[in-house]
Amino acid sequence: MHEGDDSDSLLVRVSLNRRRALRWLVVPAVSPWWGTPALSWASVGRIASARIWPAQEYTRLILEAPAPIAHQLLTLKNPDRVVLDLDGIEITPELAQLPGRLQGSDPYISAIRFGQKSPGAVRLVIDLKMETKPQLFALKPVAEFGHRVVLDLYPVTPIDPLMALLEEMRATEPSTERDPAPASRIPARPDKSGRRRITIALDPGHGGEDPGAVGRRGTMEKNVVLAIARKLKGMIDAEPGMRAVLTRDDDYYVPLATRVQKARRVQADLFMSIHADAFSVPTARGSSVFALSEHGATSAAAKWLAQKENAADLIGGVNLGVRDPLLARTLLDLSQAAQINDSLKVGRNVLDGIGLVNPLHKAVVEQAGFAVLKAPDIPSILVETAFISNPEEELKLRSDRHQNKFAQSMHDGIRRYFANNPPLARTGTNTG
Ligand SMILES: [Zn+2]
Q1: What CATH number does domain 2-155 carry, 1.10.10.10, 2.60.40.3500, 3.40.50.720, 3.90.550.10?
Q2: I want to staple 22 with a disulfide (CB 3.0 to 4.6 A). Which of 14, 77, 173, 402 is the partner?
Q3: CA of 109 to the centre of ligand 1 (A)
């Protein structure tokens, strides 16, 4: 296409091994204006930050500016690339850094090039490793973020958590039959003793754009909860008759509804969201466990916390244009009394376990309207392992040894729950 050929001749080509060339070619060409503080930001747009969050599920590219960015997307083939035209924008050093932020391991992007198309118009060309399904949307300012333009690059065939689970099983169980079982049967397949395998969905909170709470030493909730979840997964997988699936195993954002959806697709017997609490005063401390509430929260603090956790979608960034309407309806229509009853039981067990390794913030399982706990048919709890805002607990959350202790204590709680409540006896919600 002409569009693509045009872009190739117009732009400074920047790839991973040409970072030096980027500095040399691009920076001097545009330095005169950003070196002039007298120039009004209002007259010309400024990209204040440009970030890339690569992950197998999708790679996200973010451009952030103090004012809305006029943008337009073009998809080109042979070779596969997407072109992002930005209007009313000049090239800033922040934007110039973007190609250098690209990782060679990025599953979808091979190179990023950009150039000044005309005064005030910038063209970004993203060379792809394969054909993708791009989603482009804007986010309004929230928390410390300004206006963001978000480009998500998804694989044409989405990565199916069920298929990923199947592959994982094949890798860990080489002796089992090779013929692919129908996907729907996979999670419920009995183990060698004839018992049904228990599947636990572990949900490390936040990720990518959303760091979650940040401790005084700069510890990010998204990182420590992922570390704890990975350790817990290892312990669960080593347990006969049990397996764990992570809703995210990397530093990228997964929308809250998608986390629930992933758990449902693997027919999880338990959904456990793992977090680290924060409060304005550093003395607040201790672990707590939460379940869903259908009618109001059990305390003002629980209500506040649920609101804070539910705001993750605003910070992490969700394309509201592609919300799964079927899922939204499922979550709205069903009574969740049975789920909540089971969640309180498993929550009690996990609280007892975690209370052995850390003081409890609240000795009872609290309830509030957490969006991530709304699977109608899966017992779901949210664990606030400790307060990252408490300097002592921040140290615990950072320490490998304590991460293991947290994981072990949750593992004990889960085991105790399933020993007393085998999944076959689980009170399922009739979705018919
Ligand atoms: Zn959190």
Answers
A1: 2.60.40.3500
A2: 14
A3: 30
